[in-house]
Amino acid sequence: MNPFRYFSLVFSYPTEEMLEEIEELSADFPGMRCSEILRGMPIEDVKAEYTRLFISAFPALLCPPYESFYREGVVYGNTSAEVCEIYKSHGFDYVYEGEPPDLLSVELDFLSMTNDGDFLDRLKEWIFDFTERVKRHSSLYGILAEELENFIKGV
Questions:
Q1: Segments making up each domain of the chain, as ranges
Q2: CB 49 within 8 A of CB 140
Q3: What is the mean pLDDT of each run of 10 residues along the chain (155 residues)?
C-alpha cells in the first residue's frame, strides 16, 4: 500500500471507518505514528479538532487544506482549475462535491494512484507552509502534520 493513501485518510474528515482503515494500513508503515496517536482519541474530539482547524474557525480558517490558498491566498482560485486539469490528463474526472480538487486529501489520494513525480514536486512547493501552520495551531494534528512532512521530505 502506498503511504500517500495513508496520509490522505489522516487528513480527511474523521469517521470511524476512516480511523479503522488508518489502523489497518498502519501495519504497512511501522515507523509512522498516526494510527497510534489517533487510536487513543475519542472520535468526537478528533472531529472537533479537524473542524476547528480545517473547516471553520472564527474569525478565519486556521489551516486551510487547499493548495490554492498557499499559492493565491484564496480557495477555489485558478489553482483549483489547474489541479482539475492535471487529474483529467491522467484520466480522472473530479466531481465537485463540496470540496475543490486541490483539497490536500484529494491531492494525496491522486498521488497514491499515480505516483506522478511532477505532481509531487508541485505538492512540495506548498505543503510545508501548510504543515507549519498546523503545527502552530494544534498539538494533535501538529504531530500528524509532522509525520506527513517527514514522509514528503523523504520522497
A1: 3-154
A2: yes
A3: 91 95 90 87 95 89 96 94 97 88 97 97 98 97 96 94
Work out the burial of residue 153: count CB atoms within 10 Å of its CB; fewer than 13 is exposed, 13-18 middle, 19 or more buried.
Answer: exposed
For the chain, give the DSSP string. Answer: --HHHHHHHHTSPP-HHHHHHHHHHHTT-TT--HHHHHHTS-HHHHHHHHIIIII--SSS-SS--BHHHHHHSSSSSHHHHHHHHHHHHTT-----SSS-TTBHHHHHHHHHHH--HHHHHHHHTTHHHHHHHHHHH-HHHHHHHHHHHHHHHH-
Architecture label for domain 3-154: Orthogonal Bundle (1.10)
Facing residues of 103 across strands?
A: 66
End-to-end CA distance of the chain: 15
